[in-house]
Amino acid sequence: MGVAKVIGLETEYGVSGGTGDPIMSSSQLVTAYGHLGSYINWNFDDEHPGADARDARRFTSVAPLIETHIANTVLTNGARFYVDHAHPEYSGPEVRRASDAVLFDLAGDEVLRRAVTSVANGFGSQEPLIIHKNNSDGKGNSYGSHENYLVSRDVPFDDLISAMVPHFVSRSIFVGTGKVGAETESGQRREEWFHVSQRAEFFEEVVGLETTLKRPIINTRDEPHSDGDSYRRFHVITGDAQLSQVGIFLKVGTTAILLAALEEFGPRAFPASPDNPVAAMRTVGLDSTLASNFRLTDDRIMTALDLQRELLGVGKRYIDSCGGDLVGGDEEAHLIIAEWTAVLDDLASDRAAAATRVEWLAKLQLLEAYRDRHDLPATDPRLAAISLQWHDLRPDRCLQNRVGMRELWSRADIDTAVVQAPRDTRAFFRGEVIRKFGDSIAAANWDSVVFDLHDGVLRRVPMMEPLRGTSDLTSNLIDRCATPEDLLRELGV
Q: Which residues are catalytic?
């Protein structure tokens, strides 16, 4: 039986300026923003990045490093803001709908902007910090934009692999953000000056545990951050960080529907995988004509657009048969299907229309217009500079802001999401107790909040069910408790 597709997005941002040390700059951002409110430490007790969905004894994957000594805080909107290696990272709160995933991802962009202002106010003598929401530095280094989806533990991991590889290989055609120039040996062997995806050329394996080396299309990290007997957290590392609101919506919504369809129908309902998934993913990520094809394991030859049309058929069949309860409701589900259908149709026949939602295409049109106007070769460094400036989070410098891409949320909505958690997941409880009782909270993470009443005893409130701790279940409780002692007494902790 399927489970609600609770969703969380993580974005690592590029940072420059400041002290010139990206780790120091990232720490300044997190610390400065955290002290605008309550600085709540992250609880690492439940972190197990080496847990592998496969039998770990059979594999030699290296677990990602956890840097517990670097700035790390939890926000009143239920999100986590921290330093991951040399990047500030924002992990949005758990949400039920793809549209809310968009909203809280945009809230993360605003958190970074406010953090930059806070650092400038405290360290005015240093160079201003500049933040880019992108996935590569142009020098061969890629950083992540990860997705997380709640999946039933009953689904065998091998089924996730066979069902989802076709999607992750082909979805770049509507979720890629585009870039100028290759950064890996495999990319440099090709002649394309513009890439559909920033991330695709960096993937080297089909399945694996790592996220920074030998990147796999299917990541096997098995940290459910919930009841591990019932749930799996499917950790997806193949996506680009997007500024396009419709693009984020499609990235999350299509994946959520296909995961629900897998739980209902099993992997046989899905198209076959490419015969060489890594090569196919790189080909799709490089080809702005969308004409390249690849062979599937059933010997058919397809383009990414062909494969996405078959996956759309799986999604339609699921929604027609089962409704949209597990993906945020019928209205949300039908909107995902409608947008998915429209973007594939436009990519096939009306690319100008698609550019209002597809970020790589809007960027390419801007670059081609500039290149034609100035008669530039593809190697001209001004093109790479424009490609980077597209992702600049400063509102007056961000080129994406100037091309008229469609928006789903207002500035007021985003400002609210910066400080208030979603109401229909456990993120509500996490955010509200931090807001009300922050001085008495020692630490928090996805599945617990640890209270310190300054009596020598730490008290842990577990939150193992992602759909408990909602506003409906806990707002009255939080409102009537005047002190953290009252709350813990009522909870029986």
A: 84
